[in-house]
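User: I'm writing a short methods note and want a consistent example. For GABA permease, putative, I'll paste the sequence; you return only the structure tokens, no commentary, since I'll be parsing the reply automatically.
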Amino acid sequence: MSIEAKTEYTVGDAEADQGVGQSNHVKPKFGKLSMLSLSVSLMATWEALCSTMVSGLVSGGPPALIYGFIIAFVGSLATAASLAELVSMFPTAGGQYHFISKLAPLHMRKGLSWLVGWISTFGWIAIAASAPFSSGTLIQGLLVLNYEDYVFHRWHGTMIYWAILVISAIANIQGSRLLPLFEYLTLGFHVVAFIIVLVVICVVSPTKHAPEFVFVDVINNSGWGSTGIAWCVGMLSSCYILVGYDGAIHLCEEMTKPRTDIPKVMISTILINGTMGFGFLVAILFCMGDLNSALQTTTGYPIIQIFYNITGNVHSATALSSTIVIMAGISSIPLLTSTSRMIWVLARDKAFPASSLLSKTNERRQVPANAVVLTSVLLGLLGLINIGSTSAFNAIISLTVFGLEISYLIPICFLLYQRVISPQSLTPGPWSMGGYGIWINALSICFLVFTCVFLLFPSYQPVTAANMNYASLVFGAVCICSGAYWLFKGRKVYEGPIFSELVD
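Assistant:
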């Protein structure tokens, strides 16, 4: 079947198991286990929870974290299952915006896939910034804990953040062939560190909170007059730690069996990280000690103070916190990998400036080096937010979750529409939810709409220039840039994803 006939091609018709549009310049290097290792380390749920739990503690307290995590887990699992079904139909590195090119009506296909491509890439740039930002500022927090004469400046954290980005870029370009081995080691560290930290906090903690503190007592220190709104805003941390499961999709052209392996990897990632994250959350809330001291800590991260409350020793608290620093730092490498692949695929479809340059791959190292470099530069610019805002991390997290969830929401809406209006047009891939699909798609859409509404709310009241949530401003700027480039050049050169010849 020719490329020209693709608009008449039944949605999801069986194609070769290799990724649609698979590049001849990048050889498959990831197996199912190495991809699972990469996906688990991308999310690094229990470590990410340590970095972001302040939002839930302030806006609702421990119950907000517990029940918010459960809701986020169920909603994320439904969303991952919906996207897994789509990638089983269309195994392509473009992911969400390629799905749109297959599912959306012809009259809106080009413009909508362009928009979703930019939004998805924007979300991945934000999530790729969050891990090195967390690692860099946690290092600052440990300096505050260990050295009384250290003067905290936000630009110090930005400098450390930039250093981690440079290391990640070098690892992606110079060590690209070793990425699968690196992911195995990362997964091992992720699991071993989890066990060690969990055992230590449960055994060493001098006191344990009552179950009512963890599951019942709502605390609202956010300034929001409504506890309900505060609780919804506090769900940000739970949504963030379970987002990014589409990272495997953007590397599926570097796998040998993406139609069957990617869906399994995505679902397994949610189940593994969700289980570890919830277990760690319950343990840390029971053992955390005084809540006010955690919220008022000068380190900038309640988890550092919580570890100090538990151990009563600066060095022990530093050792426990260092596991989070290390995991966040090494997670920066696979995050940069997935994000650079998004830019590479966009450039390949002529949806990004300097497409001819960014779509090139380094033949010797089998990596899109130019895309890696540009991604690193964009991440470096995003780090400047930290210099001017005390809520920079919240803004980056909001950008991450909002951008990615919008990119999930649009194709899933079209998938549900096709299921209801024209079910005969859908031919499932090897991985399918069958008759349950319509209900799981609907659950995913409800979850995504609900969370997206509150992701742009400011975390605290009253709102000031320093603590406001700049996510909406940055997201609007991205949409304006995307629209301007579409009018200037994009609509003339962009034809939507061009898939390689389809195999009957």
